[in-house]
Design brief:
This protein has a single domain, classed as Metallo-beta-lactamase, Chain A. With about 250 residues, the chain is of the alpha/beta class. The strands form two sheets. It has a seven-stranded mixed sheet with strand order 6-5-4-3-2-1-14. The protein has a seven-stranded mixed sheet with strand order 7-8-9-10-11-12-13, with helices on one face.
Length: about 250
């Protein structure tokens, strides 16, 4: 299974990184729809598209407005957008209000239920993470492959979602702040480098990729990777268009 990072920045895009968007091209699943979403059309290998939204802050959903070009260039039999009922309503009523966006999107809106979903052969479970306005993390399990996506939350070793991600082959976790910026991380509902690495070790994941990086930081050195690897050696810094096998 391959994860393709289409957007690895938080808050706003930079010359090097678009905002939150991860893709599993082989199965047509996309995690969040930030500004990196325009790249989906170039990598989609299916005639269905399933978009899992963590929450509806603009850096995670503005790419939904790019769906018309995706539909124009690709044959798509179905597009489904998943999220909590109130987040989907926010997208439809505000982001896609006719005063902001001129056409209805050809999608089905699917509110998350308590039970796991089955999407393209994957068991998809969701769990709450702490962030202003609320946010969801996701775990996807196939026979022989598993991954988790956790963004916009403050990582701690006693976080409520540790058991939800335990033992996954790949954890894609936000890391908006460097070590030494923990106060800002807690104020804004984000994570710092060593705390994410400690969480990955606690959850016994196999690989960790750091995403949702600070667009104001050095794009070539956005986090202290050496500090992270001292705690959890199998750590990588996510880069736009990076492919990760798991």
């Amino acid at each position: 299974m391959k994860l393709l990072l289409l957007g690895t920045s938080g808050y706003h895009p930079s010359d090097q990184r678009q905002t939150a968007c991860l893709m599993l091209p082989e199965v047509g699943i996309v995690l969040d729809a930030g500004t990196g979403f325009y790249r989906v059309r170039n990598h989609l290998a299916t005639t269905t598209l399933d978009i899992l939204l963590s929450h509806t802050h603009l850096d995670h959903v503005t790419g939904l407005t790019f769906l018309l070009s995706t539909r124009f260039q690709k044959r798509l039999d179905r597009i489904s957008v998943y999220g909590t009922a109130e987040k989907l309503a926010a997208c439809r009523e505000h982001l896609l209000d006719e005063n902001l966006f001129p056409a209805p999107l050809p999608v089905e809106w699917v509110p998350l239920a308590e039970r796991p979903l089955t999407i393209s052969g994957a068991k998809v479970t969701h769990f709450p993470v702490v962030h202003p306005g609320g946010c969801k993390g996701y775990r996807l399990d196939w026979p022989g492959h598993s991954m988790a996506y956790v963004t916009d939350t403050t990582a701690t070793t006693d976080a409520s979602y540790v058991e939800h991600i335990r033992g996954v082959d790949l954890l894609a976790h936000e890391c908006n702040f460097r070590d030494g910026q923990e106060e800002w991380a807690h104020k804004t509902g984000h994570s710092s480098t060593s705390e994410v690495a400690k969480l990955a070790a606690r959850a016994a994941v196999r690989q960790l990729v750091l995403i949702h990086l600070d667009p104001l930081d050095d794009p070539n050195d956005p986090v202290d990777i050496a500090a992270a690897r001292r705690i959890f050696p199998a750590t990588e810094i996510g880069r736009d268009m990076m492919e990760i096998e798991f």
